[in-house]
Amino acid sequence: xxxxxxxxxxxxxxxxxxxxxxxxxxxxxxxxxxxxxxxxxxxxxxxxxxxxxxxxxxxxxxxxxxxxxxxxxxxxxxxxxxxxxxxxxxxxxxxxxxxxxxxxxxxxxxxxxxxxxxxxxxxxxxxxxxxxxxxxxxxxxxxxxxxxxxxxxxxxxxxxxxxxxxxxxxxxxxxxxxxxxxxxxxxxxxxxxxxxxxxxxxxxxxxxxxxxxxxxxxxxxxxxxxxxxxxxxxxxxxxxxxxxxxxxxxxxxxxxxxxxxxxxxxxxxxxxxxxxxxxxxxxxxxxxxxxxxxxxxxxxxxxxxxxxxxxxxxxxxxxxxxxxxxxxxxxxxxxxxxxxxxxxxxxxxxxxxxxxxxxxxxxxxxxxxxxxxxxxxxxxxxxxxxxxxxxx
Length: 392
Ligand code: SF4
Prior knowledge:
16 helices
């Protein structure tokens, strides 16, 4: 049963009135979870209709050595030489990329994130970018989180702007959204107290936007934070996006809620979010972040099945093929190791949407036709390799 408070919020959304902190909290507490999803879907369809985006992207994590010790992280190793620690040379990183990339269907994006390694020279990152640009000039380089950029500035004695300018000269094109976790300091101090603060994370994105760069942002949810912290997180991002949009250069393109996975990290005792929490968080994000164009249902963290349902809860993007991701893999993710374009097209079509392959900057690469109704629900007979229609 939807609450009277929800009806008020619904009226605000339909009248184009911006939601405030109290509204955000009420949405997280709304008992009628399907009504919440339907309202988020209304906003999503107003912006994008049935169009649902994905890209062909490859992940590369060249080092998991990191001086920080975030409680939720299953990926990092404190020092070189520890079991499971790895750091690739630039040549090894390029070899790893070649192994991941099918030359007959090259990706349009290479996404690189790493641990905060105190023993590498800054030139390592510049060489990595320029080698990627040389060998894969058509693949957009979305590399290094705001936390990494902040670390580079501190560790190598530069301003954030200087770091960004040098990396852009070497081939950097945009920043991924990782490292946001929960921006509120009460939570951030408890889960990751030795890396960029929430304000420092935002300052890097502000500077990147001022340089004309597009970036994304994330939120790691489902651990020790409250709904109030999630709403606060969204409001901080929304405020920065207002500034960046007004400046008219770069801005955030997409918001990506990331479900916390408790395996193999310092918060193993926590259960992690449920599927309903995943969907509710997507829906509230869509309604609160009225100045973000795109909302991603990140199938790596929520599983492809929940991400698919997320397309009816406000999400208009499923990220991409994501070949070779190792961060959620370290946390024993329940999602597969990469999806094919066919998998993503099927997932989107069966949700009743139109698949659109995009590049990193949301330029259309290919729009797929809407599936005919009788073709939507097909199952593959694995023994015979044939498609069997289950709808007459
Ligand atoms: S989340 Fe990032 S900064 Fe924190 S320990 Fe893991 S790799 Fe290091």
